[in-house]
From TrEMBL:
Organism listed in the record: Halalkalicoccus paucihalophilus
Domain Glutamine amidotransferase type-2, first and last residues per copy: 81-150
Ranges for domain Asparagine synthetase: 227-350
Protein name: Asparagine synthetase B
A GO term from the CC aspect: cytosol
Entries under Pfam families matching the protein: Asn_synthase (PF00733), GATase_7 (PF13537)
GO biological process per UniProt: asparagine biosynthetic process
GO molecular-function terms, A-Z: asparagine synthase (glutamine-hydrolyzing) activity
Length: 608
């Protein structure tokens, strides 16, 4: 699913300009459903049967994928020949709106209850397919695209400076907040009801993420992890769709390839046949998959800058839409793209705030020692962050964050409108709950480009991650242990970046990892064809700016915008770029600035 725009109250058909941010490319099917008090417009790649209507003529749209239902026993959606909306309709007929509580999904659902004259929007537990909304004089506008929503004539895009500062500092906005007043994200794990005659909106939270560790052995969690991984792939065994996998030289995606036993195509994104690409090719060969290199063109970053910012929702930067330019090919060659995204986040220490150690020539490394987070000061210290130099009269980022942080009776804390059970739960989950808090656009770009499946976002994996003690998150590796159990052959291939085999055990793997990184950085000479090509899957974007020198053109064509936007310092923006070109590392700040400058909403704001 690409996107949806909905309007309640007095509705008019949208203009082509309004729809532009909703559509990823020109290959979508656009469908419009109009009633007296409701308009729902969808853009999808390929044909769609949405909306699916129930016997009572209620209409259902599903954006994303429903994997199953967790009731007295787990119900596998793939046992029947259902589309996602057909399966949602079956659950709705059987359980009413309570279907949301058992829904195992990476999806949002829109449901028009015709006889009750109301609209219902259901989000999955993590909010993996965010829905944004704004109340307007005669109803509500909602969309999967912030910029589509802001383009509606009844929505006034006034800047919320705290939300904007958060985005500029962290490439994300906490909780349900956005950089615009009156525009919010529907909470994860929620059922939102909109009364169509009045426009009244009611939000019910049906689920909250909490850390609840079990005092069990590491082998217990490895066994549960392996069993679950085998189960989620077995559930799709009779699915006749064509599957491909996005394969790296690391552990997460090769583990999925080992568990799948038969994914025929493995894609690897690279600039050249680097060490990472050769490792991925070796993994694919041993797993019996057809290795296909997605070789980026030299102007890949510039192409992303031209296309991506108008589709973004203020989580991440434009240069993280890594598969842009290959999306049509992937949609043609496979029906579902499998990714190992969030495996490291939920199972390899990515959740736990830890101390960083500066090792000089090796760089900064994360230690397997958890930070204590028992106060707001402790949380803010662990979060870090600062505003870029080109922000006009910047406040302290700590003061911005404190304004949206509230401790509550009983030890819970609210941040950006989302309640967490404790400060430590906020420190653990704040970057991924809701998932729109993720500062990397990779996953969200994929959801617009192609039909993709990310197994580690399954409810059952999230529950397992929340039950695993911190010591196993930091000092053990359940992913590598599962890989060794499922495929000793694939586990014996060294990690492309570190050179360490996934079979290695803590603490020896840690010592070997950083020793290997030092050796490869300073002693091993693997010359790349171009200065900004790396040994890994990603380009050195800082070097790209210096070598290809497109940044000055971006600033020059947006010179009037730099001058007009009150939160930007024009001279400081040029100084930031000049300093980078002279050798400073301002990569993140500049790519964030370019993302903002190329978003249509800011040009609209400047025009006003």
């Amino acid at each position: 699913m690409v996107g949806v725009l909905g309007v309640t109250g007095a509705v008019e058909r949208p203009t082509a300009a309004l729809l532009d941010p909703l559509r990823w490319d020109e290959d979508e099917t656009v469908e419009t459903t109009v009633g007296d008090e409701l308009l729902v417009l969808t853009a999808t790649h390929g044909p769609t049967d949405d909306p699916v209507r129930t016997d009572g003529h209620d209409a259902i749209w599903t954006f994303g994928e429903i994997h199953g239902f967790e009731g007295e026993r787990y119900e596998n959606r793939y046992d029947g020949c259902y589309t996602d909306s057909e399966y949602t309709a079956e659950l709705y007929r059987e359980h009413g709106l309570d279907f949301a509580r058992g829904m195992n999904a990476t999806a949002s659902v829109v449901l028009h209850q015709r006889e009750r004259d109301r609209l219902v929007v259901v989000t999955d537990r993590l909010g993996t397919h965010p829905v944004y909304y704004a109340e307007i004089p005669e109803g509500v506008v909602f969309s999967t695209s912030v910029q589509t929503l802001l383009g509606h004539p009844d929505v006034d895009p006034a800047i919320d400076t705290d939300g904007l500062y958060s985005y500029l500092a962290f490439n994300r906005v906490p909780g349900v907040d956005t950089p615009f007043e009156g525009v919010s994200t529907l909470p994860p794990g929620s059922i939102t009801t909109i009364d169509l005659p009045t426009g009244d909106l009611d939000v019910e939270r049906y689920w909250r993420l909490e850390y609840d560790p079990l005092d069990r052995s590491f082998s217990y969690f490895v066994d549960r992890f392996v069993e679950l991984l085998q189960r989620v792939f077995a559930e799709r065994a009779d699915d006749d769709r064509r599957y491909g996998i996005l394969l790296s030289g690391g552990s997460d995606s090769r583990l999925l390839l080992a568990a799948a036993e038969g994914i025929p195509v493995a894609y690897h994104l690279a600039d050249w046949m680097s060490r990472e690409a050769r490792t991925a090719e070796r993994i694919a060969l041993l797993a019996g998959a057809d290795f296909r290199l997605l070789k980026r063109p030299d102007d890949h970053v510039e192409r992303m800058l031209e296309h991506v910012p108008r589709h973004m929702n203020f989580n991440g930067r434009f240069d993280q839409a890594h598969l842009h330019g290959f999306d049509a090919r992937i949609r043609e060659e496979c029906d579902v793209l499998v990714t190992g995204l969030y495996g490291d986040s939920f199972f390899k220490g990515g959740l736990v705030p830890a101390f960083d150690l500066d090792l000089g020539p090796i760089g900064s490394v994360s230690t397997p020692i958890a930070r204590e987070v028992d106060s707001i000061d402790g949380y803010l210290d662990a979060l870090g962050g600062s505003l870029p130099s080109f922000v006009e009269t910047p406040p302290l980022i700590e003061s911005v964050l404190r304004a949206t942080l509230n401790e509550r009776a009983g030890g819970s804390v609210a941040f950006g409108g989302i309640e967490y059970a404790s400060l430590y739960d906020l420190a653990l989950f704040g970057s991924y709950y809701p998932l729109s808090n993720d500062s990397d656009y990779h996953y969200f770009g994929l959801t617009q480009m192609a039909h993709q499946w990310t197994p580690f976002l399954d409810n059952r994996f999230i529950d397992l991650a929340c039950s695993m003690p911190i010591r196993y998150h930091l000092r053990r590796d359940v992913v590598n242990a599962a890989l060794s159990a499922l495929s000793p052959t694939l586990a014996n291939i060294p990690h492309a970046e570190t050179g360490v085999r996934p079979t290695s055990q803590f603490p020896f793997d840690l010592a070997k990892k950083y020793g290997s990184l030092f050796w490869r950085k300073h002693a091993v000479d693997e010359r790349s064809p171009k200065p900004y090509y790396s040994r890994g899957p990603w380009r050195d974007r800082g070097v790209v700016l210096r070598e290809r020198d497109f940044g000055r053109e971006v600033l020059d064509r947006n010179d009037a915008l730099l001058d007009a936007l009150p939160f930007l310092d024009r001279e400081a923006a040029y100084a930031c770029y000049d300093a980078h070109m002279a050798g400073a590392d301002n990569t993140t700040e500049l790519y964030t600035l370019f993302t903002v400058l190329e978003m249509p909403v800011f040009e609209e704001l400047a025009g006003r």
